[in-house]
Design goal:
With about 110 residues, the chain is an all-alpha fold. About 45% of the residues lie in helices and about 0% in strands. It has helices at about 15, 25-40, 45-55, 60-65, 75-85. Helix 2 packs parallel to helix 5 (about 75-85). The two termini are about 40 Å apart. The mean pLDDT is about 90.
């Protein structure tokens, strides 16, 4: 039994593909949250201890590690990483060019 499958090639940003208003910001937040979560896990911190180190309340740590970032700005998440003893490096690169459409050559 075979079924036809259709698919769409993603843009590389799931938040853009899902129609979020600020997909680039949401992607950056997700990357910061992923790092905060990894630091907390690597250092085996409780949410209470992580909250103390980051200067936030424990429910905020819970929101961060579960990806509920609506009330957090990029700046606030960056401060949390800084308070955990890490630096953020920003790298600028040219965007990858979209491949040009293949041309059909006459035979």
């Amino acid at each position: 039994m075979s079924k036809d499958m259709t698919f769409e090639v993603g843009s590389g940003n799931v938040f853009a593909d899902l129609g979020f208003d600020n997909p680039e910001e949401e992607l950056l937040k997700a990357k910061l949250v992923r790092e905060i979560r990894a630091i907390i896990k690597r250092r085996r911190l409780t949410q209470a201890k992580a909250a103390d180190l980051m200067g936030v309340k424990q429910p905020d740590v819970s929101a961060i590690v579960t990806g509920r970032t609506a009330k957090f700005t990029l700046d606030r998440l960056a401060r949390c990483i800084d308070r955990l003893g890490y630096e953020i490096d920003v790298v600028f690169r040219h965007k990858a060019r979209k491949p040009s459409r293949p041309t059909q050559e006459a035979a």
